[in-house]
Amino acid sequence: MDLTLSEEQEAVRKLAEDFVAREVAPHAVAWDRAENVDKSIVKKLGDLGFLGLTVPEEYGGSGGDHLSYCLVTEELGRGDSSVRGIVSVSLGLVAKTVASWGSEEQKRQWLPRLTAGEVIGCFGLTEPGTGSDAGNLATRAVRDGGDYVVNGTKMFITNGTWADVVLLFARTNDAPGHRGVSAFLVPTDTPGLTRRTIHGKLGL
Predict the structure, then answer these.
(1) Location of each CATH 1.10.540.10 domain in the chain
(2) Assuming Cys at both sites, which of 16, 80, 111, 148 could form a disulfide with 75, CB separation 3.0 to 4.6 Å?
(3) CATH C-level class of 123-187
(4) HEC sequence for 116-161
(5) Tens-of-pLDDT digits for all 204 residues of the chain?
């Protein structure tokens, strides 16, 4: 098996390495102490195409393959895993999911802004009572005409306190396990959605 990186993959990795040395590593300790990162880093990640890797260019993505995505997240994590988390959640969990499973309207509405770093996504799975066990979620979504009313609590949601959209998982029927769970894209300015910062975590 040949494990040699292509020229394009090595170029992307080097771009990420240089970015980390310049924009991430010098600030990592201060960000960790402050339990916050400088939000301006998001637009810089978007400008370099790091938030659009593997997403089709027609939706604002920067293309590339999944190994390039892995190489970038590896380099970012070397500098500060919180910055890595911005990319691996907003792109890896949210934008990639929308690109694969979202409606055309959802793709047009969210992907160009997510990949540009104009908005940030978070992944609303983990709950206080069940952790990340998707088959035993307590959050419920009940149809109300053409809408759904969602009730529940999520916890330890990376990017959660400042994200613009949540890929939210909720139980929509009583089928056992994951078969009763659906995914929703919920803008964080939706009435009734509240957020609270958790302090004192060990990093991230």
Answers:
(1) 7-119
(2) 16
(3) mainly beta
(4) HCCCCEEEECCECCCECCHHHCCCEEEEECCEEEEECCCCCCCCCC
(5) 667 999 999 999 999 999 999 999 999 999 999 999 999 999 999 999 999 999 999 999 999 999 999 999 999 999 999 999 999 999 999 999 999 999 999 999 999 999 999 999 999 999 999 999 999 999 999 999 999 999 999 999 999 999 999 999 999 998 988 899 999 999 999 999 999 999 998 777
Task: Name the CATH superfamily for 7-119.
Answer: Acyl-CoA dehydrogenase/oxidase, N-terminal domain (1.10.540.10)
